[in-house]
Amino acid sequence: MSNYLFDGLLGGAVRDKRFAELINNRSYTYGDVLDVTGRFANVLVGLGVQPGDRVAVQVNKSIEAVMLYPATVRAGGAFLPLNTAYTASEIEYFLDNAKPRVFVCDPSKYGDYESICEARGIRLEALGVYGTDENIGSLAEAGSSAPVEFETVVRGADDLAAILYTSGTTGRSKGAMLTHENLLSNAKVLADYWRFTSDDVLLHILPIFHTHGLFVAINTVLLARASMYFRHGFSVDDVIENLPHCTTMMGVPTHYTRLLDDDRFNQELTSHMRLFTSGSAPLLAETHKHFEARTGHRILERYGMTETNMNTSNPYEGERRAGTVGFPLPGTEVVINNAETGEQVPNGETGAIEVRGPNVFKGYWEMPDKTREELRDNGFFITGDLGKIDEDGYVHIVGRAKDLIISGGFNVYPKEIESVLDDIDGVSESAVIGIPHSDFGEAVVGVLVAERNAELDENSILESLKTKIARFKQPKKIFVIDELPRNTMGKVQKNVLRDRYQDLFT
Ligand code: AMP
Fold first, then answer.
1. More confident residue, 467 or 238
2. Closest Cα to residue 41, out of 154, 149, 162?
3. Residue 335's CB: how many other CB atoms inside 10 A?
4. For residue 273, with 0-12 CB atoms within 10 Å meaning exposed, 13-18 middle and 19 or more buried, which class applies?
5. Which atom number of ligand 1 is nearest to the Cα of residue 307?
6. pTM of the model as a whole
7. Which of 175, 40, 38 shows the shortest CA–CA distance to 104?
8. How far, in Å, from the CA of 490 to the mean position of ligand 1?
9. How far is the CA of 280 from the centre of ligand 1 (A)?
10. What's the average model confidence in pLDDT over 223-250?
11. Strand 395-400 to 405-407 pairing
12. What is the CA radius of gyration of the chain?
């Protein structure tokens, strides 16, 4: 009789072991984790949370906000974190869809959400950031007077532990239902694959409403009884100051490119580091090489998503191949299928990436049709990514299926063109998109960012491409802009670019 995930992550934890160094000279031990989750679980149950109930949370990054996740699981509920950027009207959608018992918001937004929650019969509570916010919120106050003892609610492997909404760059966000087994199995695999031990100290700089900063980082640390330097965001100065205390860092590609822009980020600063991982967006092969030349470390790139946790990873030992996301993780199957026929394609050919394993979610919350479209009866999830597996078994991501460009009836894979553009002198990075075209259906358009102090001439770039790629793949137009639009996880928002240039050719 246990709580599969909570006991799996924390069972037998030694109370004195350090868990986190925080801002404002605060720190947390594993004993604090047990106590605070006990307090919050008591408060949640007092608010009416029953097994299976959702606890929706939109709060600023703090260790207490992290604790709400294991506390909700301990109380038998499903944790539902929401991006802090969502506005009140977006939040209404999530509340209507998920129907949580409790919604926890930042104290400064309490007034915005009061009537929204009241109209839906949802208990509204607030949680601020200790040491920073004057008003730390009703939930924190209730927690401080609640008992630490809590009889952990029994939950099994297939019970719901969390609902994470997809970032939804097209259409409405969907709530991915993640079970205790989905989360615990992935944490075990990652801790083992990346060799996390209780000696590790992770530099935590990621948001905690997303799978990367929440599950990849926190679950792996908890399971390994490791600790972390828990920062409230990313800044180059802050990383440079705190890296010397750490052994590992999990980042998104933009973190690494920004660090490389600073000369203080060098071999000496990183000499004691054991591991840098990257994910959530593609790491340019060039960044990988630049990072190695500067620091001597090879970034370990991995691939995952909200619905599946992590699927593939470059090896800990062995070749970390730049521009690839490595091998399927133990227990996870990755196949590449023809998008139309659903049949597996030979190695080396590009197709739709599908994954199956204990990490793969149970479906979209209250969206059976969407679930049927993307989750096959045989358990394979159609990720929406396109990719290939090379002769050595490394998985390459070519892009999102919805970003595939079909120009004059031919498939154009943006990544292929982006790699060619990135190799041009003076180009720092690029995004290739399809724009509606009255003749070709879609036309290829390249959007470039220049390296510092470099001048790019659109016409001579277009001219130079003529000898490098087939005519149908050549961009009809090139734009040079200051920076590519990205979301908080560093993903390039191609939909924003498509909107910007949509009327070019019609
Ligand atoms: P999210 O659900 O927000 O975590 O987004 C998942 C998507 O991010 C995946 O389906 C991929 O398109 C992309 N992604 C994650 N990791 C990588 C990676 N290492 N390389 C390329 N794309 C990635």
1. 238
2. 149
3. 16
4. middle
5. 2
6. 0.92
7. 40
8. 10
9. 4
10. 97
11. unpaired
12. 23
Q: Which of 169-173, 281-285, 429-433, 469-473 has the highest mean pLDDT?
A: 429-433
Helix orientation angle between 285-295 and 253-260, rounded to the nearest 10 degrees: 50
Mutation test residue for ligand 1: of 329, 491, 492, 494, the one with most atoms within 8 Å of CB: 491
219, 9 Cβ separation under 8 angstroms: yes
In ligand 1, which atom is closest to the CA atom of 306? 2
For residue 328, give the nearest of 308, 303, 305 by alpha carbon.
303
Mutation to probe ligand 1, out of 177, 303, 383, 395 (largest number of atoms < 8 A from CB):
303
Atom of ligand 1 nearest to the CA of 211: 4
How confident is the prediction for the chain on average, in pLDDT?
95
Q: 86-105: per-residue pLDDT in tens? A: 999 999 999 999 999 999 99
Instruction: Give the pocket of ligand 1 (CB within 6 Å).
Output: 166-167, 211, 279-282, 301, 303-306, 325, 383, 385, 397, 400, 489
Helix axes 88-98, 110-120, angle to 10 degrees: 30
Residue 5 near residue 155 (C-beta atoms within 8 A): yes
Tokens of 488: 């908080």
Give distance in angstroms: CA of 247 to centre of ligand 1: 25
Ligand 1 center–CA 284 separation, angstroms:
14
Classify residue 291 as exposed, middle or buried by CB count within 10 Å of its CB (0-12, 13-18, 19+).
buried
- The 10s digit of each residue's pLDDT in 341-393 is 989 999 999 999 999 999 999 999 999 999 999 999 999 999 999 999 999 99
Residues making up the chain, counted from first to last = 506
Q: Are 359 and 332 in contact (CB under 8 A)?
A: yes
Please give the distance of CA 409 from its chain centroid, rounded to a whole number.
34
Query: Is 352 in contact with 382 (CB distance < 8 Å)?
Result: yes
